[in-house]
Amino acid sequence: MKSCSTGESSAEKLIKQRQDLPSEENLYATAEILKALADPTRLKILHLLKKGELCACEIIEVLDKPQPTVSHHLTLLKNAGFLKWRKEGVWIHYQLSHPDIMELVDQITNNIN
Q1: Could you report the per-residue pLDDT of 64-79, keeping only the tens digit for each?
Q2: Domains, the chain, ranges and CATH?
Q3: 43: part of which helix (H) or strand (E)?
Q4: Which helix (H) or strand (E) holds 94?
Q5: Alpha helices for the chain (secondary structure H)
């Protein structure tokens, strides 16, 4: 069986490519952000919020899921930087942290739909 052999110039190119890779910390952070999108319930929440701010109670009502479940998903999205929130009395209102987030998600999934 033939093995992969690299010449000296190929080895130098591979070293350069390795140096150009993002840091492990950056790759880990990116993976965590993408994991936050890897759930149908969280994607539903983002789609709901693309039309504007909603109270957590409204999100719970639309999703027809228990409050702890929705709160968990909202926390993950908030920690990943997708949501911002404000408290009004006992209620928490959520909105997208950047209006173009859903455009980016749509671009990523364009080939799927």
Answers
A1: 999 999 999 999 999 9
A2: 8-108 (1.10.10.10)
A3: helix 40-49
A4: strand 91-96
A5: 8-20, 24-37, 40-49, 56-63, 67-79, 101-108
